[in-house]
Write a structure and sequence with these properties.
The protein is of the alpha+beta class. About 20% of the residues lie in helices and about 25% in strands. The chain starts with 10 loop residues before the first helix and ends in a 26-residue tail after the last strand.
């Protein structure tokens, strides 16, 4: 009689029934002896690409991740922007486009591992480097340091976030193989090792001792001096075209053994308003990628897809230079997820080192040119204050900043009166360069000039004593990198008129997004001042139009791009969704990406534009145009050198 018929339950049957529970649990470790990572005990090397879920509509996450997987990547890297999830203290949002857990699960379902960078600071050319603006309520707070107020906020945030992340760690059955602590801290002035030690203990307390925690810094000893810390695995970042061996020598200085890692290999570069569109050769990227993979290094391509700074989320460099709405980054996948020559060049390099998935690559999503849409003028900002300022006016002897007015993003209108007669042109000045960031000035509803941070601190005005002065101040994005990230907005110092200090201000925090979404703006016809405007300048005003997506054409709606001929600078909403800033007069970006997910085939689509500088309806008519082709590289005149974040070839020497 066989054992199976003996009535006993043999070991073989037990193994068949329960063998999976006896297998070794998933593991991901650093092997210092063999200079590699180990995944489930086997030597492992990741080839990863950066994707920021916060810059891509949720409906497109799967498409972008699939394209990354089909390129041969076995991992993706993403940031978690604190300010994207905690807009005010203790108020959290992880739903919809902010559902980071869904994003992680989607990556795992597709077959991608995840390198997670939860901050608390992320840089990322994102507003204030991901730190929430409400931290600045403590005016003298020292960000990214052991400052007690900052640490208390970080502890509370990480106490919310890290328990959500723990189930997604690889050893717990999830896709997250490594977690970064802080970001490029060696490039920050504070050099506070107690702060980094505190973060390390905080991450360990929530994620456990088995989680692989790491840091990233520029590939130079000066960066690693304050960025590397015992207990966290040190990695470096650098771009193509330099000496790869010398760059990794910097990592080896602080990590003599362990895997070589380039956590940010720059496949492109960021843009700034008023500078040329950054382009990095596919051939140079492919060559440097091949050199790193030949050395056995782990590589993350930053960015593999950049996406879009919708709304007000773009950051800025110092000296003050904001990034545009597009975060295309000249990446292998475009802002809209389109396949590029660079994508296929990178795929061919990866093929030399690992098997890439077989089958068709998801195609570039179709784009549709919906054509011209006629807009009509609604109201000037000054005339619409009753519906725009939900909190009502606030008075003060001196102007208050956005933070003091409980306004994080967008616009604030500051109102005062001319204290004296100005029959001759009189200088209105911000002597301490206190306009953060751009101010549109009107006297008795006539536009008279624009003040701009670091660029224009004085304009001339005329008017009678008692004339109403309206100054609409635009927050164009907080500095995201360097010592100036504590970037206060609004009129952050006093203005003068000739020899007089301007006082007695009335200030209006503007809830423009709510007003647009709720349809509160209505046309009032031309104002009395309209006929007397200088041809070159008009008061900030709203414009509106609608368009219907045609019937009888399959697969609509489709993605599109909006172009604004004869418009100068402002903000666009479509169906209440804030598409972002436009500034074609400065460039290089001319068109704004409009994802199909915000368009409707069931009802007319609403287009609302806040134009800040000109009236495009004079002499009229004024139109916007929906096109199927992006324009991100319009020629611009730039008096500044290309801004680099912190990497240059000298760092490798």
């Amino acid at each position: 009689m066989s054992p199976l018929n003996s009535g006993s339950m043999p070991v073989l049957v037990l193994l068949l029934l329960f063998g999976h529970s006896l297998a070794a649990p998933p593991s991901f470790t650093v092997d210092y002896e063999k200079d590699c990572f180990r995944k489930d005990g086997e030597e492992f090397r990741y080839i990863s690409g950066s994707i920021h879920y916060s810059r891509i509509p949720r409906v497109y996450w799967k498409d972008r991740l699939l394209k990354m997987y089909m390129a041969g990547l076995n991992a993706i890297q993403t940031y978690i922007p604190w300010n994207f999830h905690e807009p005010s203290p203790g108020q959290y949002n992880f739903s919809g486009d902010r559902d980071v857990e869904h994003f992680l699960q989607l990556a795992q379902d597709i077959g991608l591992l995840v390198i997670l960078r939860p901050g608390p600071y992320i840089c990322a050319e994102w507003d204030m480097g991901g730190l929430p603006a409400w931290l600045l309520n403590k005016k003298h707070i020292v960000l990214r340091s052991s400052d007690p107020d900052y640490i208390a906020a970080v502890d509370k945030w990480m106490g919310k976030l890290l328990p959500m992340i723990k189930p997604h760690l690889y050893q717990n059955g999830g896709p997250v193989i490594t977690v970064q602590v802080e970001n490029e801290y060696g490039s920050y002035f504070a050099c506070d090792f107690n702060y980094m030690r505190h973060l390390m203990k905080l991450f360990r307390s929530y994620l456990g001792e088995k989680a692989v925690l790491f840091t990233t810094d520029g590939a130079g000893l000066s960066y690693l001096k304050c960025g590397a810390i015992q207990g966290l695995y040190s990695t470096v970042d650098f771009g193509p075209g330099g000496n790869v061996t010398a760059a990794f020598d910097a990592q080896r200085h602080v990590e003599p053994h362990g895997p070589l890692v380039n956590s940010e290999f720059y496949a492109g570069w960021l843009d700034n308003w008023g500078h040329h569109h950054s382009v990095v050769s596919s051939a140079i990227v492919a060559k440097s990628l091949n050199e790193m993979l030949f050395l056995g290094a782990n590589v993350n391509l930053y960015m593999f897809i950049g996406g879009t700074n919708f709304g007000y989320w773009n950051g800025a460099n110092a000296p003050y230079s904001p990034q545009p709405t597009s975060y295309d980054y000249d990446a292998p996948l475009t802002e809209a997820g389109d396949l590029t020559e660079k994508y296929f060049a990178i795929r061919e390099v990866i093929k030399m080192y690992r098997k890439v998935p077989e089958g068709p690559i998801p195609p570039t999503t179709p784009k549709y040119a919906y054509g011209e849409v006629k807009l009509t003028k609604l109201q000037t900002v000054s005339d619409a204050l009753e519906v725009l300022s939900l909190s009502g006016p606030i008075t003060s002897l001196y102007p208050q900043s956005f933070i003091e007015l409980n306004q994080d993003f967008g616009f604030v209108l500051y109102r005062t009166k001319l204290p004296v007669n100005c029959s001759k042109p009189t200088p209105l000045s911000s002597p301490l360069n206190g306009v953060h960031d751009r101010a549109y000035v009107s006297v008795d509803k006539v536009a008279v000039g624009i003040l701009e941070r670091n660029k224009v601190i004085t304009i001339n005005v005329t008017g009678k004593a008692g004339s109403q002065v309206d100054i609409l101040v635009e927050n164009m994005g907080r500095i995201n990198y360097g010592r100036d990230i504590n970037d206060f907005k609004g009129l952050v110092s006093n203005l003068t008129l000739g020899a007089n200090l301007l006082t007695d201000w009335t200030m209006y925090s503007l809830s423009i997004d709510k007003a647009v979404d709720q349809g509160l703006l209505r046309g009032t016809g031309p104002t009395a001042a309209d006929g007397t405007q200088p041809a070159s300048l008009s008061p900030p005003a709203f414009y509106e139009g609608t368009f219907i997506i045609p019937d009888g054409i399959p697969q609509l709606p489709q993605d599109t791009y909006i172009k604004l001929p004869n418009w100068r600078k402002g903000q666009i909403w479509i169906n209440g969704f804030n598409i972002g800033r436009y500034w074609p007069s400065r460039g290089p970006q001319v068109t704004l990406f409009v994802p199909a997910s915000i368009l409707s085939t069931a009802a007319p689509n609403n287009v609302t534009v806040l134009e800040l500088e000109v009236d495009p309806c004079i002499p009229g008519p004024c139109t916007v145009e929906f096109t199927d082709t992006p324009i991100l590289n319009a020629t611009v005149k730039s008096q500044h050198k290309q801004l680099r974040k912190h990497f240059n070839r000298d760092d490798l020497l």
